[in-house]
User: Fold this.
Amino acid sequence: MLPLITILNRCHHFRGFVYQHAGFSSDHKSIEIAVRPRKGSAAICSRCHQPAPGYDQLAERRYDFIPFWGFLVFLLYAMRRVDCRRCEAVVVEEVPWGNGKHQLTNAYMLFLARWARRLSWKETAEAFRTSWDKVCDSVEHVVAFGLEHRTLGQIDAIGVDEIQYAKGHKYLTLVYQIDSVTRLLWVGKERTIESFQGFFTTMGEEITSKIVFVCSDMWEPYLKVIREKCSQALHILDRFHIVAKMNKALDEVRAGESRRMASEGQTPLLKKSRWLLLKREENLKTEQRFRLRDLLRYNLRTVRAYLLKEAFQQLWDYNSPAWAGKFLDEWCRQTMRSRIEPMKKIARSLRQHRELILNYFRAQKLLSSGVVEGLNNKAKVTYGFRTFRVLELALYHSLGKLPEPESTHDFF
Assistant:
């Protein structure tokens, strides 16, 4: 027979404390383990973290521990108070398995936080018969430790983007490291100039002044802050956002022409054609390719806009910034003569940001925000949290690659 206390002494032992006895609670639904100070051991002041003479003892307290074979487990301990000469105060002692802010042990909080990466917080709470609030407290504990102890090191490239996290145009600004390390660096509320400036304040000038590449979309507040705070870096406009804006313009043309044809009683040639036009041709099914081929025979504004969009994709095949610039200029010139206003709007925007687009080629096409988009898709898994603070914790926990507190045993 292997007693439970023997197992605890092997995997959760702390100097100066003894597991006195273990047994079932009165309702036989949980296991209670009594802990006492080892004889002759001094209590530790929770302020200065130094030994101090004892003062008195408080009532017994319960700490939630990792469940065992379906039984809830609690550590029972009567906290001592010390009369600390250094702090000139009577304070509660420091215990190595927990702190005064939580009724959960540190081991249990790390255990729940690790599971909260694999399951939703609600599922984690249900699986281990605890509450959602305790899972949240556990994640907060692990994230706070990680942010305090993470090593930023050399950051060569960052990507900035926004995600919408609630109804009513509520956005978050997310900044990722996208060089040899891919991780979330910072979360900001809203997508304003003031919000993004918070990243540079948090990181400090010593780190941000060494950034070599910055990837972003064409959101003007981001562009302004990057010009001011990161002028030494090569600023690369995200090709994925450019293509997305072009698809949006094409869809606007298609929808407008489809409504006009319907009002004039013409044959609905554009009916159910949205994804035929927005998908890349290589992603179309065989029957969709035949239908697209038939549609392209008609002289429609939508067809002309589609051909302009497809022609633009050739830009990304260039390696030379000079030749890419010539292609971009020619494409914009043709588009401005197309008399298709949504596409002309895209051309004007591309002309305005010409140099930032060509920086993609100056960086030898090594960097883009494709990594950022992939991380954003992972970030969207955290949707459903109602407050910014909790959503911030979930994002750092999932994407921050933060260091974790040390544990006496790897329980999970």
